[in-house]
Amino acid sequence: MKVVLCGASGLVGGEALIQCLANEAITSVLALTRRPLPKELLANPKVVNILHEDFSHYPDTLIEQLAGAEACIWAIGGMNAKFSDPKTAHTVNVEYTRAAAHFFAKTLVPAVSPSGKKFRFVYCSGWGTENDLEKPLWWMQDSRRVKGEAENGLFALEKGNEGVFEVLVVRPAGILPKERTLKGLILMLGPAVKVEAVGVVMVDMVVKGCEKKTLENGEIVRRGMELLRG
């Protein structure tokens, strides 16, 4: 199985890449990044690093490079607080996601669907995401709404490509890195999940699918523990 991975240089995407390489069902990972991946990752024959500067635009030259891909793991984005302003947060979380998903639906789905398969788009959302954009919210309003807008756009695209394009979502809370940090210790005071669990669950979803369209934090924790135990 050939998988597109967007966000491989980040915390979640980096772990998803490690889990992809460990999964025998995945034969090739097409990692779209702005900067080259570390040499030790590029040395793995499964990894194809495609340098791509603008995630709001996908030129036709990418079609040949992504040919044969059956799924995408999307790990680009994050809470609004990590961005310089709300507009940038919206661009990265909503517009980048929408542009990529529409490009994949247009160019990659036609090659997958004749075999009876669905192109899977596994999206890393966030804990507390709200799909009702008009609902009053009392905490983390901007982050919860921007992720909700991104999810809504993906599910609308799925509806327009019923039977051939499948959207699956994970909603992790505080993501704990492998190394112990002060930030990680603070995150443990609230709902949290290890990055290994998020990565292995997303890869499992992209390979096997999932009965539930959306996995909340507690479900990611439980499923991740099961998968990591083997």
Question: What report would you give on this structure?
Answer:
With about 230 residues, this protein is an alpha/beta fold. It is about 45% helix and about 20% strand. The chain is built from 9 helices and 9 strands. The chain has a 7-stranded parallel beta sheet, sandwiched between helices. Helix 1 (about 10-20) crosses helix 8 (about 195-210), helix 4 (about 85-105) packs parallel to helix 6 (about 140-160) and helix 8 crosses helix 9. The longest helix has 22 residues, at about 85-105. The radius of gyration is 17 Å and the shape is globular. The model has no long low-confidence stretch (mean pLDDT about 90).
Q: From the helix content, strand content and strand pairing, which structural class follows?
A: alpha/beta
User: Mind describing the biggest β-sheet?
Assistant: 7 strands, parallel
Number of strands: 9
Shape field: globular
Order of helices and strands: EHEHEHEHHEHEEHEHEH
Key traits:
two-stranded parallel ribbon; 9 helices; 18% strand; globular
Would you summarize the structure shown here?
With 230 residues, this protein is α/β, with parallel strands linked by helices. It is 43% helix and 18% strand.
Task: Please describe the topology of this protein.
Elements: E1 2-6, H1 11-22, E2 28-33, H2 39-42, E3 47-51, H3 61-65, E4 71-74, H4 86-107, H5 109-112, E5 119-124, H6 141-160, E6 165-171, E7 174-176, H7 182-187, E8 192-194, H8 195-208, E9 214-216, H9 217-229
Parallel strand pairs: 1-2, 1-4, 2-3, 4-5, 5-6, 6-9, 7-8
